[in-house]
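Reading a protein record of the kind used here takes only a little practice. An example makes this concrete, so a full record is given next.
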Amino acid sequence: MFTDAEKTQIRRFCGYPVFGDSPTAGFGTRFHPHYEALEWKLNHLSGDEERLAREIYLPRLAQLETDLFDRTRENLDTDAAAVWTHNQAEHRDRAALFDDLRRRFCGYLGVPPGPDLGHGGIRVIV
C-alpha cells in the first residue's frame, strides 16, 4: 500500500490537483472525472505493480523534477562539442523529458494525464 506521501507525489506527477483532507462542495469526480480512477488504482495495484511504481517511476520523476532547477546532474547544457555551444533549449528539453515520463507513468497506471499535465499537444477551443 502506498503511503500518503507517495500518493501525493503520484497525484502531482500525474498532473492531478491537490486532494485535501475532506471533500467539499464543488470538488470531486464531477469536476475531475478521472480522479476517482486514479485513486482506485493507487489503492488496488498488485504488489509487483506498486513496487515498479515505487522503485522505477517515483525516484526517476523526482530526479527529473530536481533537474529542472538544478542543472548539475545531467548534461543537457551542451548543444555542440569541440567549441562549446550552450544549448539554448536546455530548460525546455528538461521539461519535455520530465513531462514525457509523467505521461508514461499515467499510461502505466492506466489513467489519463491530469489537468495540470494536459494532453501533450496543442488544443484549440473554438
Q: What stands out?
A: The first helix runs from residue 4 to 13. The beta strands are 78-80, 85-86. The chain has a mean pLDDT of 81.
